[in-house]
Specification:
Elements lengths: L4 H19 L2 H10 L6 H11 L2 E6 L2 E2 L3 E2 L6 H11 L3 E5 L9 H9 L5 E4 L5 H10 L3 E5 L5 H13 L3 E6 L2 H7 L6 E5 L11 H6 L8 E5 L5 H8 L5 E4 L1 H4 L4 H9 L6
Parallel strand pairs: 1-4, 1-10, 4-5, 5-6, 6-7, 7-8, 8-9, 9-10
Antiparallel strand pairs: 2-3
Helix pairs in contact: 2-6, 4-5, 4-12, 6-7
Bound molecules: the ligand O=C(O)c1ccccc1NCC(=O)[C@H](O)[C@H](O)COP(=O)(O)O.
Length: 267
């Protein structure tokens, strides 16, 4: 069977984590996590923003497997500040290096330059990475249901909650959504991009939104470009969005963020 990009990422990520553990034991990472900047309320910030407008998780993203280099002029702290001035609610910072040209330090730099809560955007397979996320200052972690078992997803979620963080549970189809709903987190991210094929369609949110029950908070992720896209997704119950590429391609990130959020459809 051919390997998907997710399989490849998982393989090198497990090696990376094993090397990290050998270099720095869990006890040291836990000590760093305990000493880190206090947790900022990620989910709560989105719930509040969605009452009167849209919640925006603005992504600090230099490159991707599907698009290659997205932004040459890339300074995480400056970009994060532009997002904040433009009205974003939260940050998402890619910390994976091989596929996204991200870095762990980008998370700390971006978050500490703003007052926004931050998501560690990475591929999580081990509670060690969750403690490390907190040590870097993260307020939320990502759990990609396409890439983990139910048991591991619950273990990662428990670890995040144990550190006082939130967990964004990401799904792309009905089966993953059903599994995600067995977890406790209210944050359900529907990724419009199929991470195995890169095919991106807003139909993913349109279809899956029917099966997101009351009490869960729907976040539409990927492939969102315009205010009309956001208004469209809002008709399906998504009042928060995770957006990277379309904002990262703008010269004036602050103005582009403001424009995107300017005219929300009423809640
Ligand atoms: O973006 C990719 O090409 C990608 C490939 C494989 C795994 C994950 C990938 N992206 C992660 C994301 O989900 C997006 O960075 C995020 O939702 C923002 O999407 P966009 O606004 O389309 O940059």
């Amino acid at each position: 069977m051919t390997q998907t990009i997710l399989d490849k990422i998982k393989a090198y990520k497990l090696e990376e984590v094993a090397a990290d553990k050998a270099a720095k034991p869990m006890s040291e990472v836990e000590a760093e996590a305990r000493a880190a900047s206090p947790v900022r309320p990620f989910a709560q910030a989105l719930f509040e923003a969605a009452k009167t407008g849209y919640g925006l998780i603005s992504e600090v993203k230099k490159a991707s497997p599907s698009k290659g280099l997205i932004r040459e002029d890339f300074h995480p702290a400056t970009l994060a500040q532009a997002y904040e001035r433009g009205g974003a609610t939260c940050l998402s910072v890619l910390t994976d290096t091989p596929s996204f040209q991200g870095a762990k330090s980008f998370l700390t730099e971006a978050r500490s330059a703003t007052n926004m809560p931050a998501l560690r955007k990475d591929f999580m397979y081990d509670p060690y990475q969750v403690a490390e996320a907190r040590a870097l200052g993260a307020d939320c972690i990502l759990i990609i249901m396409a890439s983990v078992s139910d048991t591991l997803a619950a273990e990662l979620e428990d670890a995040a909650f144990g550190w006082g963080m939130d967990a964004l549970i990401e799904v792309h189809d009905g089966e993953e959504l059903e599994r995600a709903l067995k977890l406790k987190s209210p944050l359900i991210g529907v990724n419009n991009r199929n991470l195995k094929t890169f095919e991106t369609s807003l139909d993913t949110t349109r279809v899956l939104s029917n099966n997101v029950p009351d009490g869960r908070f729907l976040i539409s992720e990927s492939g969102l470009n315009t205010p009309a896209d956001l208004a469209d997704m809002a008709q399906y119950g998504a009042r928060a969005f995770l957006i990277g590429e379309s904002l990262m391609r703008q010269e004036d990130v602050e103005a582009a963020t403001r424009t995107l959020l300017a005219d929300p459809v009423p809640a």
